[in-house]
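=== Structure Prediction Worksheet ===
Name of assembly: unnamed complex
Input type: mixed (protein and possibly other molecules)
Chain count: two
Listed entries:
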Amino acid sequence: MIQTQNLSKHFGKLCALNNVSVNLQKGKGVSLIGPNGSGKTTFIKCLLGMVIPDSGRICFNDQPILRDSWDYRKQIGYMPQIGRYPDNMRVRQVFDLMTDLRKDSHCGPLDEELIEEFGLKNSFDKPMRTLSGGTRQKVSACLAFLFDPAVLVLDEPTAGLDPLAAEALKAKVLREQQKGKLVLMTSHILNDLEELTTDVMYLVEGDLLFFESVENILERTEETRFAKAIAKIMAQQGKISSTLQRKTIAL
Amino acid sequence: MRILLRYIAYDILRNRMIIAYTLFLLLMSATMFSIESNPGKGLLNLLNIVLIVVPLVSIIFSTIHYYNSYEFIELLLAQPIPRKRLAFGQFLGVGMALSLAFLIGVGIPVLLTGCSSAALSLVLTGVFLTLIFVALAMLAAVRTRDKARGIGVALLLWFYFALLYNGIVLFLLFAFSEYPLEKAVIAFVSFNPIDLGRILVMLHTDASALMGFTGAVMQQFFGSGWGVLYAVVIMLLWFGLPLWGSVRSFSRKDF
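=== Predicted Assembly ===
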């Protein structure tokens, strides 16, 4: 559904993405994992057209995404890492604005399941500035699912949510995935990703280290639990890079 | 368009700074016209306040508003709308709200006291200056990633146009006082929208008689139909070029 070919992006000297080529398919739950500053958010922003890659190609349903493309975003629901909304707007008005914005591209009923489950209707008349971080995160989540998009991009979805809401969100993601949607997410809480992930994209300093299915990873690391397997890989990776560093210093 | 109007009505018009700005302008207009029995003089006093306050509030408010809505702009960028439309929306939202505040705070009181050509030119100048400084703020904010630096650039721009530029022109006039500079002054004026606004309004009041020979040359130039057209075109350029630049930067930038 989404293919990238040799996607590269530099910010000054910093290399955020280096020749990343992946093929993300329908019905998969792809987790983007990597240490801080490894290019996860940059990759997501490239897909959404918020960051313009230096080189490489992104195709959405076999259509290349160019600098001016915007039509393809009709099929994407995005939940940002930090949700900040206009201070004076009420929750209801944010939903109204977004509905207005996507009215032309969306036909059929709105998916208000999450709004019900989060009990967000109770805070519909509150101004956005009075909401807590967690409630704002709930608003972001509801907006991502509202238009029943074919692709869901979730950047740290469970950060700041209470356990109950996090569970509700995870259940929702799983349901949508089973309907054949592509879910792309990042998180540092590996336990949250465990049930939702079918494939892992592992990035380190802009390089795609591997793109493998969970079964493969479990087999390779001889672990039974996803979180432990990833932790093992991360620790190994850490050792390799620190020895590399030591060697370069020694040289 | 409906989305834009919703945005303005739901958020920007409820902003405390916009409400305070409207009330301040209303208060100033009321004071100026109640102190002076002669509406012409009141208008001139009001002009001096408008020329300082309108650019300052427009440029600072737009810059702060842009940085505060940065995350919301990011979310909107992920929606199916072209970037250019988003950039225009951001500009129009702030520009229309500030213009509305100016029209309520200065436009209505001024036009109530008398619908002279000076009054009309004051209102027109105020709206132009609002839009010009919102566009300049957009340009500065879009091109500067850091909030503190962006606000600093905005303040410097205002400082330059409102205060520094006049000093430079005065210095030049003084240094070259041996030469006939009347025509050059018209060129100088074109490079600063605030000065252009000042001249446009003053030429429509009695004060133009006090401006000496330069005033007479200007009266001759800006008094004609072509002069007014020239002034309007320059004002439009002052607002069109920064807007074009900021929309261009906005649609190429990484968020």
